[in-house]
Amino acid sequence: MKRTSTLVLLAVLTLTVVGLAGGAHDPILILGNSDFTVDNGVVGGSGTADDPYLITGWEIDVPQNTKYGVKIENTSAHFVLRAVVIRGASAADGAAIQLGFVSGGKVEKCLISGSRNGIEISSSTDLTLTGNVMYVQGIGLHITGESADEYNLAIDQTNELNNNPIRYYYGRDGETVTGITSNNLYFAACKNMTITDNTITNGDGIQLAFVTDSVVSGNEVYRTSPVLTEHGIKLYRSDNNKVSDNVLQNNRFAGLYVWLSSHNEITNNQFLANDSGLILAASDENRVYENMAFANPVGIELEAGSTKNDVARNIVTHANTKYGIVIDQAAENTIEANAITDAETGIRLASQGNNNTVTSNTIVNAAYAISLSGSNNEIEKNLIAQNTRGILFPETYGKITVRGNSIHHNVFSDNSNHIYLNNDSHSNRIFGNTFLGGGTSLVEDYGKNTWTVSGEGNYWGDYTGSDANNDGIGDDPVLIYPAAVADSAPILSLDQASDNLGVLSTLPIDDLTITLSDGSKITLPVLRANSGNSRFVGFRGYP
């Protein structure tokens, strides 16, 4: 009965929208002003503002191997696309209607059904969309442009996406958008906006382009069915915004995707079972603090030249996590005081992940706590515990030389293997670390690396050498095989380990006063766990 009602509704919409049906037509392809011809569906007009080319009344069934029902590109002539029915545009990289590098166009009362994606607009100006109805399984409205002017489009709420009005806000200042339940919200060239407490499901999510100085908080964006949409929230060329306290769940790609955007604060969000929790792409100097990434195959990823981002005090957990935090083609970022558990790889620095700082993180129960293929990174003060391998330099088979990394003042505990350096590792410095348990038997170096720096080696849990002068440095070197490289100054004291316990070592020390039964008081120094990441790791330093 429900299917019959839907078919009747589509039939009514078709009759209502088409009105002047001109019959069946092949997909329309217009690649310049000269292509506005009768063969391409033009039924009138001369292309001026007062007399635009008119394409109207056609029904287009898109063949399976064709990307678009109507494609108009590189035109300056005025046109109206009106009352056209497009069905079956199923290509993942296509759309029912595609407009690229055009100006002076109107799309009116078109009906799109049975299609993957609806209307795609790229780098276009002076466009008007009114009264269009889209029934799609993927992206309804996709707009891209290199400037804010290319988002200055007249798109009103008479347009519909899967029975929801399209809400497109352009050029707004200081407004609040709240309490909307829908499948789409679009903001372009806005500033000082408050976008809060909206629920967006099974659609285009919340999209920001050229938006500044705004707050995006308390929203929920998720899927309840396997629709072929993309990100939960997307920021494009949007700076100085605060994105906080949102719940982004089961989105097909990223819960939050930040592209070419800088100086944003991303805090206290929940990324739950998306393909990726958060992606920063070609984005700089953002602060990513105190978020929860749960059951995403990738928790947080920095890519495409992202630099100087601060990723701190986040929680990444769940056995479904392949990579907790990924740094790929990204430099000069700081990954600090994050709690990462149960991932296949806790932190991955890919071959172009160079000159980053990974400090004071707690990484527990991973196959590989840190996978390191980049160079000149600083890996310090991390607690690496209960992993199959603590730090892995994956084999590169001569294609890449991994060099210049400093791995120092970390604590390795209860790992099956503490650290593995491959044949193509060179001039990496490993010093000041605490290797508990088997110590030397759990470390492998196949490269040409250094294990003592400025008279400081590492603490080895199984060291049996002497210290004749009681200076705290072992007299007998430790040999690391199979390279047989020496740690010539093994440390004998565990004192330095207390400062290198990952998240635990970042906690502030407070005085706690306890009143005893006799009325006397004692004051004790305590570590105060006042944030989610510190409470998550617990008293032992890991869950």
Outline the structure in words.
This protein has 543 residues and is mainly beta. Among the domains are: 154 residues, no CATH class; 194 residues, no CATH class. Helices cover 4% and strands 45% of the residues. It is built from 2 helices and 61 strands. It has a 24-stranded parallel β-sheet that branches. Strands 19, 21, 23, 26, 29, 32, 35, 39, 43, 46, 49, 50, 53 and 56 form a 14-stranded parallel β-sheet that branches. A hairpin with an 8-residue loop joins strand 3 and strand 4. The longest helix is centred in the first third of the chain and has 17 residues. The radius of gyration is 29 Å and the shape is elongated. The two termini are 53 Å apart. The N terminus is likely disordered.
Quick structural summary:
The protein has 543 residues and is mainly β.
The proportion of strand residues reads over 45%
Q: Could you name the ranges where pLDDT drops below 50 across 5 or more consecutive residues?
A: 1-21
The total count of strands amounts to 61
What's the oligomerization state? single chain
Shape: elongated
Give me the Rg, rounded: 29 Å
Mean pLDDT: 94
- Ends distance: 53 Å
The helix tally amounts to 2
Largest sheet geometry: 24 strands, parallel
- What structural category arises from helix and sheet content? mainly beta
Bin the helical content: under 10%
